[in-house]
């Protein structure tokens, strides 16, 4: 997911100071750290395994949609193995 955030006022000033003082390399890093901290505060980032499972499920759903929409295709294993053998035989 890509998100554009416009900061001004106190929020922008704090973001700039966090970078200037070397706490973060970029404002984007500071923003990400803030989101993670909010996740911890509100109990959304308690179990890393659950978060990882959620990310995997979302990725699988995205891939399934792309297949259904024709944006991604499945290649049978025998074709992949055949292509791999051909490439190895050519020394690639």
What does this structure look like?
The structure is a single chain. The chain has 2 domains: 1-45; 47-92, no CATH class. 66% of the residues lie in helices and 0% in strands. The protein has helices at residues 9-20, 27-41, 48-68, 77-89. The longest helix is centred in the middle third of the chain and has 21 residues, at 48-68.
N-to-C span: 35 Å
Largest sheet, in brief, is: none
Helix and strand element order: HHHH
Average pLDDT score: 91
Features:
92 residues, mainly alpha
Write the layout of secondary structure elements.
Layout: H1 9-20, H2 27-41, H3 48-68, H4 77-89
Produce a short descriptive summary.
The protein is 66% helix and 0% strand. The chain has four helices and no strands.
């Amino acid at each position: 997911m890509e998100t554009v955030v416009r900061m001004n006022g106190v929020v922008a000033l704090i973001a700039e100071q966090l970078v200037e003082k070397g706490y973060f390399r970029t404002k984007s890093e500071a923003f990400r750290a803030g989101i993670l901290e909010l996740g911890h505060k509100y109990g959304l980032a308690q179990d890393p395994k659950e978060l990882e499972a959620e990310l995997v499920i979302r990725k699988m759903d995205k891939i399934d949609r792309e297949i259904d929409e024709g944006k991604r295709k499945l290649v049978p294993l025998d074709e992949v193995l055949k292509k791999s053998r051909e490439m190895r035989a050519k020394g690639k």
